[in-house]
Backbone:
């Protein structure tokens, strides 16, 4: 089955995900789940946390303020959204932009797992600590998990069912909006992606 069809199957399942506590909110607010966007043959996959307000309204990942920072970071290493695949762990917006809960990560994680198996990226760049922890655990790198401030910008080798890959934990682009880090700090971390 072509990749696009397999990804469409995942989308249809998420659309009907009545067992998720976020499903009712999505229907009530007349917004969309956010599955992912970009190149289905991408070598690099970015994994964020969960859609925010803009993303749920448009059904696209990173299309608000954080998305503009992400675009700037990609541009700094001469990459474009068209070359990469961007998704999140949690596919529906957690109410009022709170952090995703463990339960939500457990419900939506398997959809991300399937997206990884379909797209087969060589590099998975995580954005923020939730996706870093999820992906590091998924690829048996529990023993390497440290606070995101220590892991950021490093490449960890891992084995996927389809071959060797690298996991690169990065800070979430939103940290540049809250001024905890500058765009230059984030750009420095992004440079590592140039090697791939
Ligand atoms: N933050 C995320 O983690 N993901 C998005 O898609 C948007 C903002």
Residues:
């Amino acid at each position: 089955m072509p990749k696009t069809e397999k990804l469409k199957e995942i989308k249809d399942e998420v659309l009907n995900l009545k067992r998720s506590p976020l499903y009712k909110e999505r229907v009530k607010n007349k917004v969309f789940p956010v599955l992912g966007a970009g190149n289905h043959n991408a070598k690099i996959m970015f994994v964020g946390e969960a859609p925010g307000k803009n993303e749920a309204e448009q059904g696209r990942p990173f299309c608000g303020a954080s998305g503009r920072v992400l675009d700037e970071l990609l541009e700094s290493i001469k990459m474009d959204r068209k070359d990469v695949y961007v998704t999140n762990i949690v596919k529906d917006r957690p109410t009022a932009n709170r952090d995703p809960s463990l339960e939500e990560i457990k419900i939506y994680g398997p959809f991300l797992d399937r997206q990884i198996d379909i797209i087969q990226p060589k590099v998975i760049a995580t954005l923020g600590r939730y996706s870093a922890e999820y992906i590091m655990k998924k690829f048996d790198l529990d023993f390497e998990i440290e606070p995101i401030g220590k892991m950021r910008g490093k490449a960890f080798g891992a084995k996927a069912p389809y071959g060797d890959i690298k996991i690169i934990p990065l800070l979430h682009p939103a940290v540049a909006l809250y001024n905890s880090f500058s765009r230059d700090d984030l750009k420095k971390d992004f440079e590592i992606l140039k090697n791939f």
The longest strand covers residues 163-170. The mean pLDDT is 96. The beta strands are 37-38, 44-48, 85-88, 123-127, 156-160, 163-170.
